[in-house]
Amino acid sequence: MKIIGLLLIPLASMVVLWGVITAVTASESLELRQYKTLWTNLRLPAYQLTTELQRERLASARLLRVKSNTNESELVAQRSRTDAARERFKQLSAASMHTSERIHAQVDAVLAQLGRLEPIRGEIDAGLAARLHVIETYNGVTDSLFGLHRNVAFIDDIPIYEQSRVVVDVSYARELLTREQALAAGPTTAPERRLFTQIVGNRRFLLDQALGELDPGLRDTQVSLITSPAYQRMRIMEDQIIAGGAPVGWLSTTEALNKSFSEAQLQASSLLSGRAEPVADAVLQRAFLLAGTCFVLVIVSIGFSLRMGNRLSHELTGLRLAALEVSRERLPQVVEKLRRGEKVEVPELSITSTTTEIGDVGQAFSTVQQTAVEAAVGQAQLRDGVGHVFRNLARRSQTLLHRQRIQLEDMQHRATEPEALDDLFRLDHLTTRMRRHAEGLIILSGATPGRGWSKPVPLLDVVRGAAAEVEDYQRVIVEPMPGQRLAGPVVGDVIHLIAELIENATVYSPPHTPVQVRGEVAARGFALEVEDRGLGISPEVMAELNARLASPPEFDLADSDQLGLFVVSRLAARHDIRVTLRGSPYGGTTAIVLIPAEHVSDPPAEPEERATDKEPAKEGARTIRVVQGE
Protein backbone atom coordinates (compact mmCIF):
# COMPACT_ATOMS: atom_id res chain seq x y z
CA MET A 1 0.00 0.00 0.00
CA LYS A 2 2.88 2.41 0.69
CA ILE A 3 4.35 1.76 -2.75
CA ILE A 4 0.99 2.38 -4.37
CA GLY A 5 0.60 5.49 -2.20
CA LEU A 6 4.01 6.77 -3.26
CA LEU A 7 3.00 6.25 -6.88
CA LEU A 8 -0.33 7.99 -6.39
CA ILE A 9 1.27 11.11 -4.92
CA PRO A 10 3.19 12.07 -8.10
CA LEU A 11 0.21 10.99 -10.19
CA ALA A 12 -2.06 13.27 -8.20
CA SER A 13 0.52 16.02 -8.60
CA MET A 14 0.45 15.44 -12.36
CA VAL A 15 -3.34 15.81 -12.36
CA VAL A 16 -3.11 19.04 -10.37
CA LEU A 17 -0.31 20.32 -12.62
CA TRP A 18 -2.40 19.47 -15.67
CA GLY A 19 -5.28 21.49 -14.25
CA VAL A 20 -3.04 24.42 -13.37
CA ILE A 21 -1.43 24.49 -16.83
CA THR A 22 -4.83 24.37 -18.48
CA ALA A 23 -6.23 27.11 -16.25
CA VAL A 24 -3.20 29.38 -16.63
CA THR A 25 -3.07 29.02 -20.40
CA ALA A 26 -6.80 29.60 -20.72
CA SER A 27 -6.60 32.63 -18.43
CA GLU A 28 -3.86 34.10 -20.66
CA SER A 29 -6.20 33.77 -23.62
CA LEU A 30 -9.07 35.39 -21.72
CA GLU A 31 -6.81 38.23 -20.61
CA LEU A 32 -5.75 38.87 -24.20
CA ARG A 33 -9.38 38.90 -25.29
CA GLN A 34 -10.18 41.27 -22.46
CA TYR A 35 -7.63 43.74 -23.82
CA LYS A 36 -10.11 44.89 -26.49
CA THR A 37 -12.84 45.25 -23.88
CA LEU A 38 -10.57 47.44 -21.77
CA TRP A 39 -9.87 49.54 -24.87
CA THR A 40 -13.61 50.07 -25.42
CA ASN A 41 -14.56 50.74 -21.78
CA LEU A 42 -11.48 52.56 -20.50
CA ARG A 43 -8.90 53.75 -22.99
CA LEU A 44 -11.21 55.05 -25.76
CA PRO A 45 -13.44 57.12 -23.40
CA ALA A 46 -10.27 58.27 -21.61
CA TYR A 47 -8.84 59.47 -24.94
CA GLN A 48 -12.08 61.30 -25.73
CA LEU A 49 -12.22 62.87 -22.26
CA THR A 50 -8.58 63.93 -22.56
CA THR A 51 -9.30 65.65 -25.87
CA GLU A 52 -12.19 67.61 -24.37
CA LEU A 53 -10.10 68.58 -21.33
CA GLN A 54 -7.35 69.81 -23.64
CA ARG A 55 -9.83 72.01 -25.47
CA GLU A 56 -11.31 73.33 -22.23
CA ARG A 57 -7.82 74.14 -20.97
CA LEU A 58 -7.14 76.14 -24.14
CA ALA A 59 -10.48 77.93 -23.94
CA SER A 60 -9.89 78.80 -20.27
CA ALA A 61 -6.43 80.17 -21.03
CA ARG A 62 -7.77 82.29 -23.87
CA LEU A 63 -10.53 83.69 -21.65
CA LEU A 64 -8.03 84.60 -18.93
CA ARG A 65 -5.96 86.44 -21.55
CA VAL A 66 -8.82 88.29 -23.29
CA LYS A 67 -12.16 88.47 -21.48
CA SER A 68 -14.84 88.77 -24.18
CA ASN A 69 -18.34 87.49 -24.83
CA THR A 70 -17.06 85.26 -27.63
CA ASN A 71 -14.47 83.59 -25.43
CA GLU A 72 -17.00 83.17 -22.61
CA SER A 73 -19.55 81.49 -24.89
CA GLU A 74 -16.88 79.19 -26.33
CA LEU A 75 -15.78 78.17 -22.84
CA VAL A 76 -19.36 77.47 -21.71
CA ALA A 77 -19.98 75.28 -24.77
CA GLN A 78 -16.71 73.44 -24.28
CA ARG A 79 -17.48 72.78 -20.62
CA SER A 80 -20.72 71.11 -21.69
CA ARG A 81 -18.83 68.83 -24.06
CA THR A 82 -16.30 68.03 -21.32
CA ASP A 83 -19.06 67.17 -18.85
CA ALA A 84 -20.67 64.85 -21.40
CA ALA A 85 -17.34 63.08 -21.99
CA ARG A 86 -16.80 62.84 -18.23
CA GLU A 87 -20.18 61.19 -17.66
CA ARG A 88 -19.56 58.76 -20.51
CA PHE A 89 -16.17 57.86 -19.00
CA LYS A 90 -17.76 57.23 -15.59
CA GLN A 91 -20.44 54.97 -17.06
CA LEU A 92 -18.10 52.88 -19.23
CA SER A 93 -15.27 52.65 -16.69
CA ALA A 94 -17.66 51.27 -14.06
CA ALA A 95 -17.98 48.08 -16.15
CA SER A 96 -14.23 47.34 -16.29
CA MET A 97 -12.60 49.16 -13.39
CA HIS A 98 -12.72 46.01 -11.20
CA THR A 99 -10.60 43.99 -13.64
CA SER A 100 -7.58 44.34 -11.34
CA GLU A 101 -6.57 46.23 -8.22
CA ARG A 102 -4.11 48.29 -10.26
CA ILE A 103 -6.77 49.47 -12.73
CA HIS A 104 -9.32 50.05 -9.95
CA ALA A 105 -6.90 52.27 -8.04
CA GLN A 106 -6.04 54.27 -11.17
CA VAL A 107 -9.70 54.83 -12.11
CA ASP A 108 -10.32 56.09 -8.56
CA ALA A 109 -7.37 58.45 -8.98
CA VAL A 110 -8.84 59.77 -12.26
CA LEU A 111 -12.24 60.34 -10.65
CA ALA A 112 -10.58 62.18 -7.76
CA GLN A 113 -8.76 64.45 -10.21
CA LEU A 114 -11.95 65.09 -12.15
CA GLY A 115 -13.46 66.38 -8.91
CA ARG A 116 -11.05 69.34 -9.14
CA LEU A 117 -12.75 70.68 -12.27
CA GLU A 118 -15.64 72.43 -10.52
CA PRO A 119 -13.46 74.41 -8.05
CA ILE A 120 -11.09 75.61 -10.76
CA ARG A 121 -14.02 76.56 -13.00
CA GLY A 122 -15.44 78.64 -10.16
CA GLU A 123 -12.12 80.41 -9.72
CA ILE A 124 -11.98 81.14 -13.46
CA ASP A 125 -15.52 82.55 -13.52
CA ALA A 126 -14.81 84.72 -10.48
CA GLY A 127 -11.56 85.98 -11.99
CA LEU A 128 -9.52 84.72 -9.01
CA ALA A 129 -7.34 82.16 -10.80
CA ALA A 130 -3.93 82.84 -12.30
CA ARG A 131 -3.42 81.62 -15.85
CA LEU A 132 -0.47 79.35 -15.00
CA HIS A 133 -2.31 77.83 -12.01
CA VAL A 134 -5.32 77.00 -14.21
CA ILE A 135 -3.15 75.29 -16.82
CA GLU A 136 -1.29 73.24 -14.24
CA THR A 137 -4.58 72.13 -12.66
CA TYR A 138 -5.83 70.79 -15.98
CA ASN A 139 -2.40 69.19 -16.47
CA GLY A 140 -2.88 67.19 -13.27
CA VAL A 141 -6.21 65.84 -14.50
CA THR A 142 -4.80 64.74 -17.86
CA ASP A 143 -1.76 63.18 -16.16
CA SER A 144 -4.08 60.90 -14.18
CA LEU A 145 -5.79 59.83 -17.42
CA PHE A 146 -2.46 58.93 -19.00
CA GLY A 147 -1.60 56.97 -15.86
CA LEU A 148 -4.73 54.94 -16.57
CA HIS A 149 -3.55 54.34 -20.15
CA ARG A 150 -0.23 52.99 -18.91
CA ASN A 151 -1.87 50.64 -16.42
CA VAL A 152 -4.38 49.30 -18.93
CA ALA A 153 -1.59 48.75 -21.48
CA PHE A 154 -0.15 45.88 -19.36
CA ILE A 155 -0.60 42.60 -21.24
CA ASP A 156 1.17 39.23 -21.23
CA ASP A 157 2.04 39.44 -24.92
CA ILE A 158 5.38 41.30 -24.93
CA PRO A 159 5.29 42.67 -28.54
CA ILE A 160 1.78 44.09 -28.07
CA TYR A 161 2.69 45.53 -24.67
CA GLU A 162 5.84 47.18 -25.98
CA GLN A 163 3.99 48.81 -28.87
CA SER A 164 1.10 49.87 -26.60
CA ARG A 165 3.54 51.51 -24.21
CA VAL A 166 5.20 53.43 -27.05
CA VAL A 167 1.82 54.53 -28.47
CA VAL A 168 0.89 55.87 -25.02
CA ASP A 169 4.16 57.83 -24.99
CA VAL A 170 3.36 59.29 -28.40
CA SER A 171 -0.10 60.24 -27.14
CA TYR A 172 1.49 61.95 -24.17
CA ALA A 173 3.72 63.88 -26.56
CA ARG A 174 0.52 65.19 -28.17
CA GLU A 175 -0.72 66.14 -24.70
CA LEU A 176 2.47 68.16 -24.20
CA LEU A 177 1.77 69.87 -27.53
CA THR A 178 -1.67 70.97 -26.29
CA ARG A 179 -0.03 72.32 -23.13
CA GLU A 180 2.30 74.39 -25.30
CA GLN A 181 -0.75 75.57 -27.24
CA ALA A 182 -2.49 76.80 -24.08
CA LEU A 183 0.62 78.47 -22.64
CA ALA A 184 1.46 80.37 -25.85
CA ALA A 185 -2.06 81.38 -26.85
CA GLY A 186 -0.85 84.98 -26.52
CA PRO A 187 1.99 87.00 -25.00
CA THR A 188 3.72 84.97 -22.28
CA THR A 189 5.25 85.85 -18.94
CA ALA A 190 8.70 84.74 -17.81
CA PRO A 191 7.38 81.82 -15.66
CA GLU A 192 5.18 80.70 -18.55
CA ARG A 193 8.14 80.76 -20.93
CA ARG A 194 10.21 78.68 -18.53
CA LEU A 195 7.44 76.07 -18.30
CA PHE A 196 6.96 76.29 -22.07
CA THR A 197 10.67 75.59 -22.64
CA GLN A 198 10.57 72.53 -20.39
CA ILE A 199 7.50 71.14 -22.13
CA VAL A 200 9.01 71.67 -25.59
CA GLY A 201 12.17 69.80 -24.62
CA ASN A 202 10.24 66.94 -23.05
CA ARG A 203 7.92 66.61 -26.05
CA ARG A 204 10.72 66.54 -28.58
CA PHE A 205 12.71 64.00 -26.59
CA LEU A 206 9.70 61.78 -25.93
CA LEU A 207 8.62 61.83 -29.57
CA ASP A 208 12.11 61.12 -30.92
CA GLN A 209 12.58 58.23 -28.50
CA ALA A 210 9.16 56.71 -29.19
CA LEU A 211 9.46 56.80 -32.99
CA GLY A 212 12.57 54.62 -32.83
CA GLU A 213 10.64 51.88 -30.97
CA LEU A 214 7.47 51.76 -33.09
CA ASP A 215 7.14 49.03 -35.68
CA PRO A 216 6.94 50.14 -39.36
CA GLY A 217 3.15 49.77 -39.55
CA LEU A 218 2.69 52.32 -36.76
CA ARG A 219 5.73 54.51 -37.40
CA ASP A 220 5.09 55.62 -40.98
CA THR A 221 2.09 57.80 -40.12
CA GLN A 222 3.94 59.51 -37.27
CA VAL A 223 7.04 60.11 -39.39
CA SER A 224 4.98 61.70 -42.15
CA LEU A 225 3.56 64.14 -39.59
CA ILE A 226 6.86 65.24 -38.05
CA THR A 227 8.45 65.68 -41.47
CA SER A 228 5.58 67.83 -42.75
CA PRO A 229 6.10 71.56 -43.41
CA ALA A 230 3.48 72.41 -40.78
CA TYR A 231 5.45 70.59 -38.09
CA GLN A 232 8.68 72.31 -39.09
CA ARG A 233 6.89 75.65 -39.05
CA MET A 234 5.62 74.87 -35.54
CA ARG A 235 9.18 74.14 -34.34
CA ILE A 236 10.28 77.55 -35.60
CA MET A 237 7.39 79.16 -33.72
CA GLU A 238 8.36 77.30 -30.57
CA ASP A 239 11.85 78.75 -30.75
CA GLN A 240 10.37 82.22 -31.24
CA ILE A 241 8.14 81.82 -28.17
CA ILE A 242 11.06 80.60 -26.08
CA ALA A 243 12.92 83.75 -27.14
CA GLY A 244 10.00 85.87 -25.89
CA GLY A 245 8.07 86.39 -29.13
CA ALA A 246 4.42 85.79 -29.99
CA PRO A 247 4.31 84.37 -33.55
CA VAL A 248 1.20 84.90 -35.65
CA GLY A 249 -0.75 81.77 -36.57
CA TRP A 250 0.39 79.73 -33.57
CA LEU A 251 -3.08 78.48 -32.63
CA SER A 252 -4.11 77.54 -36.17
CA THR A 253 -0.84 75.72 -36.85
CA THR A 254 -0.84 73.76 -33.61
CA GLU A 255 -4.56 72.97 -33.85
CA ALA A 256 -4.12 71.35 -37.26
CA LEU A 257 -1.14 69.31 -36.05
CA ASN A 258 -2.97 68.35 -32.87
CA LYS A 259 -5.89 67.01 -34.89
CA SER A 260 -3.59 65.02 -37.19
CA PHE A 261 -1.67 63.51 -34.26
CA SER A 262 -4.93 62.62 -32.50
CA GLU A 263 -6.29 60.75 -35.53
CA ALA A 264 -3.00 58.87 -36.02
CA GLN A 265 -2.83 57.79 -32.39
CA LEU A 266 -6.43 56.61 -32.25
CA GLN A 267 -5.81 54.58 -35.38
CA ALA A 268 -2.65 53.04 -33.87
CA SER A 269 -4.41 52.19 -30.60
CA SER A 270 -7.32 50.56 -32.42
CA LEU A 271 -4.89 48.54 -34.52
CA LEU A 272 -3.09 47.26 -31.41
CA SER A 273 -6.36 46.26 -29.72
CA GLY A 274 -7.23 44.23 -32.81
CA ARG A 275 -3.88 42.42 -32.73
CA ALA A 276 -4.71 40.82 -29.37
CA GLU A 277 -7.56 38.63 -30.71
CA PRO A 278 -5.47 36.40 -33.06
CA VAL A 279 -2.90 35.96 -30.33
CA ALA A 280 -5.65 34.97 -27.88
CA ASP A 281 -7.02 32.39 -30.34
CA ALA A 282 -3.57 30.84 -30.79
CA VAL A 283 -3.07 30.68 -27.02
CA LEU A 284 -6.48 29.04 -26.54
CA GLN A 285 -5.77 26.43 -29.24
CA ARG A 286 -2.44 25.67 -27.62
CA ALA A 287 -4.19 25.33 -24.25
CA PHE A 288 -6.68 22.77 -25.61
CA LEU A 289 -3.94 20.79 -27.37
CA LEU A 290 -1.70 20.80 -24.31
CA ALA A 291 -4.55 19.90 -21.95
CA GLY A 292 -5.66 16.98 -24.14
CA THR A 293 -2.15 15.59 -24.49
CA CYS A 294 -1.47 15.89 -20.78
CA PHE A 295 -4.78 14.20 -19.93
CA VAL A 296 -3.97 11.17 -22.09
CA LEU A 297 -0.50 10.92 -20.58
CA VAL A 298 -1.94 11.09 -17.07
CA ILE A 299 -4.38 8.22 -17.76
CA VAL A 300 -1.65 6.05 -19.30
CA SER A 301 0.71 6.84 -16.43
CA ILE A 302 -1.88 5.86 -13.82
CA GLY A 303 -2.53 2.47 -15.40
CA PHE A 304 1.15 1.67 -15.95
CA SER A 305 2.14 2.82 -12.47
CA LEU A 306 -0.49 0.72 -10.69
CA ARG A 307 0.51 -2.40 -12.61
CA MET A 308 4.22 -1.95 -12.00
CA GLY A 309 3.62 -1.05 -8.35
CA ASN A 310 1.75 -4.29 -7.72
CA ARG A 311 4.60 -6.37 -9.16
CA LEU A 312 7.29 -4.45 -7.35
CA SER A 313 5.49 -4.82 -4.04
CA HIS A 314 5.76 -8.63 -4.20
CA GLU A 315 9.44 -8.58 -5.12
CA LEU A 316 10.27 -6.01 -2.47
CA THR A 317 8.56 -8.15 0.14
CA GLY A 318 11.08 -10.90 -0.58
CA LEU A 319 13.90 -8.39 -0.48
CA ARG A 320 12.64 -7.08 2.85
CA LEU A 321 12.66 -10.55 4.41
CA ALA A 322 16.20 -11.18 3.19
CA ALA A 323 17.37 -7.81 4.48
CA LEU A 324 15.85 -8.51 7.88
CA GLU A 325 17.70 -11.80 7.97
CA VAL A 326 20.97 -10.01 7.26
CA SER A 327 20.40 -7.29 9.86
CA ARG A 328 18.97 -9.46 12.64
CA GLU A 329 20.90 -12.67 12.27
CA ARG A 330 23.90 -12.67 9.96
CA LEU A 331 25.56 -9.35 10.74
CA PRO A 332 25.20 -9.64 14.54
CA GLN A 333 26.79 -13.08 14.31
CA VAL A 334 29.63 -11.72 12.17
CA VAL A 335 30.29 -8.81 14.54
CA GLU A 336 30.33 -11.11 17.53
CA LYS A 337 32.85 -13.41 15.88
CA LEU A 338 35.05 -10.46 14.94
CA ARG A 339 35.06 -9.32 18.55
CA ARG A 340 36.23 -12.74 19.59
CA GLY A 341 38.90 -12.70 16.87
CA GLU A 342 37.48 -15.67 15.03
CA LYS A 343 37.67 -16.18 11.28
CA VAL A 344 34.52 -15.06 9.46
CA GLU A 345 32.99 -16.54 6.34
CA VAL A 346 29.94 -14.69 5.07
CA PRO A 347 27.71 -16.56 2.57
CA GLU A 348 26.33 -14.56 -0.35
CA LEU A 349 22.77 -13.31 -0.19
CA SER A 350 20.54 -14.83 -2.90
CA ILE A 351 17.26 -13.16 -3.92
CA THR A 352 14.99 -14.34 -6.72
CA SER A 353 13.61 -11.44 -8.75
CA THR A 354 12.62 -10.64 -12.33
CA THR A 355 13.60 -7.02 -11.79
CA THR A 356 17.25 -6.32 -12.40
CA GLU A 357 17.38 -3.46 -9.92
CA ILE A 358 16.00 -5.56 -7.06
CA GLY A 359 18.52 -8.30 -7.87
CA ASP A 360 21.24 -5.66 -7.76
CA VAL A 361 19.97 -4.54 -4.37
CA GLY A 362 20.22 -8.12 -3.14
CA GLN A 363 23.78 -8.28 -4.41
CA ALA A 364 24.43 -4.96 -2.72
CA PHE A 365 23.28 -6.41 0.61
CA SER A 366 25.79 -9.19 0.13
CA THR A 367 28.47 -6.57 -0.49
CA VAL A 368 27.31 -4.72 2.59
CA GLN A 369 28.11 -7.77 4.68
CA GLN A 370 31.69 -7.77 3.42
CA THR A 371 31.95 -4.02 3.88
CA ALA A 372 30.71 -4.36 7.45
CA VAL A 373 33.52 -6.78 8.19
CA GLU A 374 36.10 -4.37 6.80
CA ALA A 375 34.47 -1.45 8.59
CA ALA A 376 34.72 -3.18 11.94
CA VAL A 377 38.50 -3.36 11.62
CA GLY A 378 38.86 0.41 11.08
CA GLN A 379 36.15 1.39 13.54
CA ALA A 380 38.58 2.68 16.16
CA GLN A 381 40.44 4.89 13.68
CA LEU A 382 37.19 6.20 12.27
CA ARG A 383 35.90 7.03 15.73
CA ASP A 384 38.99 9.10 16.48
CA GLY A 385 38.67 10.97 13.17
CA VAL A 386 35.02 11.77 13.73
CA GLY A 387 35.77 12.98 17.23
CA HIS A 388 38.42 15.35 15.86
CA VAL A 389 35.94 16.80 13.33
CA PHE A 390 33.34 17.35 16.02
CA ARG A 391 35.87 19.13 18.24
CA ASN A 392 36.82 21.52 15.44
CA LEU A 393 33.18 22.28 14.67
CA ALA A 394 32.46 22.85 18.37
CA ARG A 395 35.37 25.33 18.72
CA ARG A 396 34.07 27.42 15.81
CA SER A 397 30.69 27.92 17.47
CA GLN A 398 31.86 27.89 21.08
CA THR A 399 32.40 31.63 21.57
CA LEU A 400 29.02 32.87 20.31
CA LEU A 401 27.12 29.99 21.92
CA HIS A 402 28.81 30.70 25.24
CA ARG A 403 27.70 34.32 25.10
CA GLN A 404 24.16 33.19 24.34
CA ARG A 405 24.21 30.87 27.35
CA ILE A 406 25.36 33.64 29.69
CA GLN A 407 22.60 35.95 28.47
CA LEU A 408 19.99 33.23 28.84
CA GLU A 409 21.05 32.59 32.42
CA ASP A 410 20.83 36.30 33.14
CA MET A 411 17.33 36.42 31.61
CA GLN A 412 16.19 33.59 33.92
CA HIS A 413 17.09 35.68 36.99
CA ARG A 414 15.38 38.80 35.67
CA ALA A 415 12.43 37.34 33.76
CA THR A 416 9.95 39.61 35.55
CA GLU A 417 12.01 42.76 35.12
CA PRO A 418 11.71 45.18 32.18
CA GLU A 419 15.35 44.59 31.32
CA ALA A 420 14.42 41.09 30.12
CA LEU A 421 13.15 42.62 26.90
CA ASP A 422 16.56 44.16 26.28
CA ASP A 423 18.22 40.78 26.86
CA LEU A 424 15.93 39.15 24.33
CA PHE A 425 16.90 41.81 21.82
CA ARG A 426 20.61 41.27 22.39
CA LEU A 427 20.17 37.55 21.95
CA ASP A 428 18.34 38.10 18.68
CA HIS A 429 21.04 40.51 17.54
CA LEU A 430 23.75 38.00 18.43
CA THR A 431 21.97 35.31 16.42
CA THR A 432 21.77 37.70 13.47
CA ARG A 433 25.52 38.28 13.59
CA MET A 434 26.15 34.53 13.75
CA ARG A 435 24.03 34.09 10.65
CA ARG A 436 25.99 36.77 8.79
CA HIS A 437 29.28 35.08 9.68
CA ALA A 438 27.94 31.79 8.37
CA GLU A 439 26.80 33.51 5.17
CA GLY A 440 30.32 34.93 4.82
CA LEU A 441 31.72 31.40 4.67
CA ILE A 442 29.11 30.45 2.06
CA ILE A 443 30.05 33.44 -0.07
CA LEU A 444 33.75 32.66 0.14
CA SER A 445 33.00 29.12 -1.07
CA GLY A 446 31.44 30.54 -4.22
CA ALA A 447 27.85 29.61 -3.34
CA THR A 448 24.89 31.93 -2.88
CA PRO A 449 23.28 32.58 0.54
CA GLY A 450 19.66 31.56 0.97
CA ARG A 451 18.26 34.96 1.88
CA GLY A 452 16.28 36.71 -0.86
CA TRP A 453 13.39 39.05 -1.49
CA SER A 454 10.78 38.79 -4.26
CA LYS A 455 9.86 42.50 -4.31
CA PRO A 456 11.92 45.71 -4.32
CA VAL A 457 12.91 47.04 -0.90
CA PRO A 458 13.50 50.74 -0.04
CA LEU A 459 17.23 51.41 0.21
CA LEU A 460 16.70 53.09 3.57
CA ASP A 461 15.33 49.77 4.93
CA VAL A 462 18.26 47.92 3.35
CA VAL A 463 20.77 50.16 5.14
CA ARG A 464 18.89 49.86 8.43
CA GLY A 465 18.88 46.08 8.10
CA ALA A 466 22.64 46.11 7.49
CA ALA A 467 23.29 48.35 10.51
CA ALA A 468 21.23 46.02 12.70
CA GLU A 469 23.66 43.16 11.93
CA VAL A 470 26.62 45.01 13.47
CA GLU A 471 27.70 44.56 17.10
CA ASP A 472 28.06 48.32 17.82
CA TYR A 473 24.83 49.22 16.08
CA GLN A 474 24.20 51.99 18.67
CA ARG A 475 27.01 54.01 17.08
CA VAL A 476 25.57 53.79 13.57
CA ILE A 477 23.65 56.84 12.32
CA VAL A 478 21.57 56.24 9.19
CA GLU A 479 20.75 59.59 7.63
CA PRO A 480 17.54 60.17 5.62
CA MET A 481 17.86 59.29 1.96
CA PRO A 482 15.68 59.25 -1.19
CA GLY A 483 12.97 56.63 -1.55
CA GLN A 484 14.65 54.62 -4.32
CA ARG A 485 14.15 50.84 -4.07
CA LEU A 486 16.56 47.94 -4.50
CA ALA A 487 15.65 44.93 -6.63
CA GLY A 488 14.60 41.95 -4.50
CA PRO A 489 17.20 39.38 -5.71
CA VAL A 490 20.02 41.79 -4.79
CA VAL A 491 18.78 42.82 -1.32
CA GLY A 492 20.36 40.01 0.70
CA ASP A 493 23.82 40.46 -0.80
CA VAL A 494 23.73 44.27 -0.48
CA ILE A 495 22.69 44.01 3.19
CA HIS A 496 25.63 41.71 3.83
CA LEU A 497 28.05 43.95 1.89
CA ILE A 498 27.03 47.12 3.75
CA ALA A 499 27.05 45.30 7.11
CA GLU A 500 30.65 44.22 6.54
CA LEU A 501 31.66 47.83 5.75
CA ILE A 502 29.80 49.21 8.79
CA GLU A 503 31.33 46.62 11.10
CA ASN A 504 34.78 47.43 9.73
CA ALA A 505 34.10 51.13 10.42
CA THR A 506 33.06 50.44 14.04
CA VAL A 507 36.03 48.16 14.72
CA TYR A 508 38.66 50.60 13.40
CA SER A 509 37.32 53.77 15.03
CA PRO A 510 37.15 54.92 18.68
CA PRO A 511 34.14 53.55 20.62
CA HIS A 512 32.80 57.03 21.39
CA THR A 513 32.66 58.18 17.74
CA PRO A 514 29.67 57.69 15.44
CA VAL A 515 29.62 55.90 12.08
CA GLN A 516 27.47 57.73 9.54
CA VAL A 517 25.72 56.15 6.57
CA ARG A 518 24.37 58.37 3.79
CA GLY A 519 22.74 57.66 0.45
CA GLU A 520 21.80 59.66 -2.62
CA VAL A 521 20.90 59.19 -6.27
CA ALA A 522 23.87 59.26 -8.66
CA ALA A 523 24.09 59.53 -12.44
CA ARG A 524 24.84 55.82 -12.80
CA GLY A 525 22.76 54.43 -9.95
CA PHE A 526 22.60 54.96 -6.19
CA ALA A 527 25.59 55.84 -4.01
CA LEU A 528 25.96 54.89 -0.32
CA GLU A 529 28.68 56.28 1.94
CA VAL A 530 29.90 54.65 5.17
CA GLU A 531 32.09 57.11 7.08
CA ASP A 532 34.02 56.54 10.32
CA ARG A 533 36.18 58.81 12.42
CA GLY A 534 39.11 56.51 13.05
CA LEU A 535 42.83 56.90 12.37
CA GLY A 536 42.47 56.39 8.61
CA ILE A 537 44.55 54.31 6.19
CA SER A 538 47.84 55.14 4.52
CA PRO A 539 47.67 55.90 0.79
CA GLU A 540 49.65 52.76 -0.08
CA VAL A 541 47.35 50.45 1.90
CA MET A 542 44.23 52.20 0.59
CA ALA A 543 45.42 51.76 -3.00
CA GLU A 544 46.00 48.04 -2.36
CA LEU A 545 42.58 47.61 -0.77
CA ASN A 546 40.85 49.45 -3.63
CA ALA A 547 42.65 47.21 -6.11
CA ARG A 548 41.36 44.13 -4.28
CA LEU A 549 37.84 45.51 -4.18
CA ALA A 550 37.91 46.29 -7.90
CA SER A 551 39.31 42.86 -8.84
CA PRO A 552 38.59 40.14 -6.21
CA PRO A 553 41.61 37.86 -5.68
CA GLU A 554 41.49 34.16 -4.94
CA PHE A 555 40.76 33.43 -1.30
CA ASP A 556 43.92 32.73 0.68
CA LEU A 557 43.54 30.68 3.89
CA ALA A 558 46.69 32.30 5.23
CA ASP A 559 45.06 35.74 4.94
CA SER A 560 42.08 34.98 7.17
CA ASP A 561 42.36 38.33 9.00
CA GLN A 562 40.67 40.09 6.07
CA LEU A 563 37.65 37.83 5.59
CA GLY A 564 35.35 40.86 5.44
CA LEU A 565 37.34 42.34 2.53
CA PHE A 566 37.04 39.08 0.58
CA VAL A 567 33.29 38.93 1.26
CA VAL A 568 32.74 42.53 0.12
CA SER A 569 34.79 42.07 -3.05
CA ARG A 570 32.97 38.84 -3.96
CA LEU A 571 29.53 40.39 -3.41
CA ALA A 572 30.45 43.54 -5.33
CA ALA A 573 31.75 41.56 -8.32
CA ARG A 574 28.64 39.37 -8.35
CA HIS A 575 26.30 42.34 -8.92
CA ASP A 576 28.67 44.78 -10.70
CA ILE A 577 28.74 47.04 -7.64
CA ARG A 578 31.69 49.43 -7.23
CA VAL A 579 33.17 49.78 -3.73
CA THR A 580 35.83 52.45 -3.24
CA LEU A 581 37.70 53.58 -0.13
CA ARG A 582 38.86 57.15 0.36
CA GLY A 583 39.89 59.46 3.17
CA SER A 584 37.33 61.17 5.39
CA PRO A 585 37.39 64.87 6.35
CA TYR A 586 37.31 63.67 9.98
CA GLY A 587 40.57 61.78 9.52
CA GLY A 588 38.94 58.36 9.17
CA THR A 589 37.89 56.36 6.13
CA THR A 590 34.85 56.60 3.86
CA ALA A 591 33.62 53.57 1.91
CA ILE A 592 31.57 54.50 -1.18
CA VAL A 593 29.22 51.86 -2.60
CA LEU A 594 27.84 52.60 -6.08
CA ILE A 595 24.88 50.35 -6.89
CA PRO A 596 24.19 50.21 -10.67
CA ALA A 597 20.98 51.76 -11.97
CA GLU A 598 19.80 48.37 -13.23
CA HIS A 599 19.32 47.24 -9.60
CA VAL A 600 17.60 50.46 -8.45
CA SER A 601 14.06 51.58 -9.20
CA ASP A 602 12.23 54.81 -8.43
CA PRO A 603 9.71 54.90 -5.57
CA PRO A 604 6.08 54.23 -6.56
CA ALA A 605 4.22 57.27 -7.82
CA GLU A 606 1.75 58.87 -5.38
CA PRO A 607 -1.25 61.19 -5.97
CA GLU A 608 -0.35 64.86 -6.05
CA GLU A 609 -2.29 65.70 -2.87
CA ARG A 610 -0.46 63.08 -0.84
CA ALA A 611 2.91 64.25 -2.07
CA THR A 612 1.99 67.80 -1.00
CA ASP A 613 0.98 66.61 2.45
CA LYS A 614 4.31 64.89 2.91
CA GLU A 615 6.51 67.91 2.11
CA PRO A 616 6.51 69.32 5.64
CA ALA A 617 7.54 65.93 6.99
CA LYS A 618 10.50 65.85 4.63
CA GLU A 619 11.61 69.29 5.72
CA GLY A 620 11.50 68.24 9.37
CA ALA A 621 13.27 64.93 8.87
CA ARG A 622 16.10 64.21 11.26
CA THR A 623 18.99 61.80 11.44
CA ILE A 624 17.83 58.30 12.40
CA ARG A 625 19.85 56.24 14.86
CA VAL A 626 19.38 52.50 14.43
CA VAL A 627 18.21 50.98 17.74
CA GLN A 628 16.59 47.70 16.76
CA GLY A 629 17.39 44.42 15.08
CA GLU A 630 16.49 43.19 11.62
From TrEMBL:
GO biological process, one term: phosphorelay signal transduction system
Catalytic activity reported: ATP + protein L-histidine = ADP + protein N-phospho-L-histidine
Keyword flag Phosphoprotein: yes
One GO cellular component, as annotated: plasma membrane
Pfam families in alphabetical order: HATPase_c (PF02518), NIT (PF08376)
Record domain Histidine kinase: where: 494-599
Region (Disordered): 598-630
Keywords: Kinase, Membrane, Phosphoprotein, Transferase, Transmembrane, Transmembrane helix
Compositionally biased spans, kind Basic and acidic residues: 607-622
Enzyme Commission number(s) from the entry: 2.7.13.3
One GO molecular-function entry: protein histidine kinase activity
SMART domains: HATPase_c
Protein name: histidine kinase
